[in-house]
Amino acid sequence: xxxxxxxxxxxxxxxxxxxxxxxxxxxxxxxxxxxxxxxxxxxxxxxxxxxxxxxxxxxxxxxxxxxxxxxxxxxxxxxxxxxxxxxxxxxxxxxxxxxxxxxxxxxxxxxxxxxxxxxxxxxxxxxxxxxxxxxxxxxxxxxxxxxxxxxxxxxxxxxxxxxxxxxxxxxxxxxxxxxxxxxxxxxxxxxxxxxxxxxxxxxxxxxxxxxxxxxxxxxxxxxxxxxxxxxxxxxxxxxxxxxxxxxxxxxxxxxxxxxxxxxxxxxxxxxxxxxxxxxxxxxxxxxxxxxxxxxxxxxxxxxxxxxxxxxxxxxxxxxxxxxxxxx
Length: 327
Hints:
Blueprint: H1 2-12, E1 42-46, H2 53-64, E2 73-79, H3 85-91, E3 96-103, H4 107-110, H5 113-120, E4 124-127, H6 132-139, H7 143-153, E5 157-161, H8 163-166, E6 172-173, H9 175-178, H10 184-189, E7 197-198, E8 210-213, H11 222-234, E9 241-246, E10 250-254, E11 259-264, E12 268-273, E13 288-296, E14 301-303, E15 313-318, E16 321-322
Helix pairs in contact: 5-7
Protein name: Cyanophycinase
EC number: 3.4.15.6
Enzyme class: hydrolase
């Protein structure tokens, strides 16, 4: 009898945590938990590497009404593969009602009604790192996408790191049919070889006409984000494009007014292309003059509502080479 009772209790413990016996079930009629009014929407865009824990806490605090609020929110981590390591970290944060990791690895799972219900009842969504091509392939035009948008529309937080941040921009470098990511030297010499983009995914208010890249300083990705920008203009997608480039162990926090603040160890770069490139065609090195670049260190801000008229420096690419150090 005792063993049977123990087994029943064990079976009732939810899987949202590994090796934790706390019952952190999602809201239901039995728990009586009511979804709170949310104070966002906001974003936390991580540059990869070690996460900035304070940036995740900022997301939670922003949507629950401040660090001193009694409101608690539901947090979901979404990924296509991996584990639930985020659960332990996030559950220890202030203002968390429950947390769960959803591993959604195909379109069938992304269209499940129970997944849809879990996501739309969250206040904070965080996309883990992985492969942005797989994310787009498996999640775009599914119920999951609709549910994530509903969280934003009700004032929630949408965050992510590495590939999970890259899918938040309007223009998304998608790794060309899920092949290995291209490096700056390769793409500067041929802006069209193995470079493809996805469009019409989330399209958040303050991230229109942007393309996000991560692991930026560490992997020397200025060249490739310059190519990504040039391609949007050359291909007729937009007359201008803004690259948002985030270093590792760094987060860019975007509040509900469109003010972006850098948090963590590194910097964020905002790279603007606002005219046609001189040469951007298959098989030829890129030539594009006078990118405007703002380097924003930790603690500083950038207004995504409008381009600042000062504080930038100019850099050009001529026949696939920088005219001077772009960093």
